[in-house]
Write a structure and sequence with these properties.
Layout lengths: L1 E5 L5 H4 E5 L9 E11 L1 H8 L15 E9 L11 E6 L11 E11 L6 H5 L2 H14 L7 E4 L5 H12 L3 E6 L2 H10 L3 E4 L5 H8 L5 E6 L3 H8 L2 E9 L12 H6 L3 E4 L7 H16 L7 E5 L4 H9 L6 E5 L2
Parallel strand pairs: 7-8, 7-10, 8-9, 10-11, 11-12, 13-14
Antiparallel strand pairs: 1-2, 3-4, 3-6, 3-14, 4-5, 5-6
């Protein structure tokens, strides 16, 4: 099979190479799928540069998310059949990610594609939306009517949070860096748009809430933007740590959290029971069926152009979600 293999550390265009590999055999608890579409995200960029915590040893094939057709089952896998179309989290930590004609995936993180989503739309759906649900519902305890500020709102993680927050009845503020991203997030349902780089982010967020302050901050960005946004939270506010697209986590003085009676909450979309994942899948599928979650894929790349797609992510030249189409 053909696959895109990371063979060094650096920019995606420099380190991604097309190779021929034997079909991988699924181990216990794994499946193999023929990739019809693969989601592309910042973790793939970070794996190319070697700074992502779950980066496997060189050489490897990255790609965390996929939609595809089941072609083989590993030992102990039940409830899945060859020929079934699924969306899944891949075995990228073992180097068998979705930037290939076929890949391995984790059976316990495999689900039917929600009715109403194409393969391309489903390919990048599960990880950001599952994370969004765990962050906003389980960890953030977001309530209808609360102010939710989403940092990096036009990226894959932010898009999910904007739409889930709106579906839950929150008043959503999308924090973006350009007019193009502002228009995109407004179309997704954000009530208020705040542009970063136009003065104090904390002051803009307080002004957007009529001086009340933000109840929940959904932060896939980290760094200074999160540190600034933290200063806008009202009493009992929650900062949800999702990721560090800026390059590092925010550095917040614990004393500040104490005197403002606010919480810094870690969010990890891992270690969740299958029963809980099925409940999340059912809730998200309902939102899709009701039109609460809409397609956010803005560009589909053919297999041959995968390095260009990942490079676009590295260059931060992306609005919305990117996917690679299977061969």
């Amino acid at each position: 099979m053909r696959a895109w293999q990371v063979q060094g550390r650096g920019q995606p265009r420099e380190v991604l190479h097309e190779v021929e590999l034997p079909l991988p055999e699924p181990g216990p608890g794994q499946i193999r799928i023929k990739v019809t579409a693969a989601g592309i995200g910042l973790p793939d960029v970070f794996m190319c540069s070697g700074i992502y915590p779950l980066t496997p040893p060189l050489p490897f094939t990255c790609g965390q998310e996929a939609c595809g057709i089941v072609t083989a089952l590993g030992e102990g896998v039940e409830g899945l059949e060859p020929g079934q179309t699924v969306m899944t989290v891949t075995s990228f930590t073992e180097g068998h990610g979705s930037f290939a004609e076929e890949c391995l995936a984790i059976a316990g993180s495999t689900h039917p594609t929600p009715t109403g989503l194409s393969d391309a739309e489903a390919a990048g759906f599960w990880i950001p939306h599952m994370t969004g649900w765990i962050g906003l519902v389980d960890r953030g305890q977001l309530k209808a009517g609360e102010w939710l500020a989403v940092l990096g709102a036009a990226g894959g993680s932010g898009i999910a949070a904007v739409q889930i927050g709106r579906a839950l009845g929150a008043r959503v503020i999308a924090v973006v860096s350009s007019d193009e991203k502002a228009a995109f997030c407004r179309d997704l349902g954000a009530e208020v748009i705040v542009k970063s780089g136009e003065g104090s982010l904390a002051e803009q967020l307080r002004e957007a809430t009529g001086g009340e302050g933000v109840d929940v901050i959904y932060d896939p960005v980290g760094g200074k933007p999160a540190e600034d946004a933290f200063m806008s939270m009202r009493r009992s506010g929650r900062l949800l740590l999702i990721g560090f697209a800026s390059g590092h986590w925010p550095r917040i003085d614990p004393h500040l959290a104490v005197v403002t009676n606010t919480s810094i909450v870690g969010v990890l979309a891992g270690g969740v029971s299958r029963e809980a994942l099925d409940e999340i899948h059912a809730s998200l599928s309902r939102f899709v069926a009701e039109g609460q979650i809409r397609n956010a894929v803005t560009r589909q790349y053919p297999f041959e152009e995968l390095p260009d797609a990942v490079q676009a992510m590295a260059d931060r030249a992306v609005v919305g979600k990117l996917v690679m189409l299977g061969t």
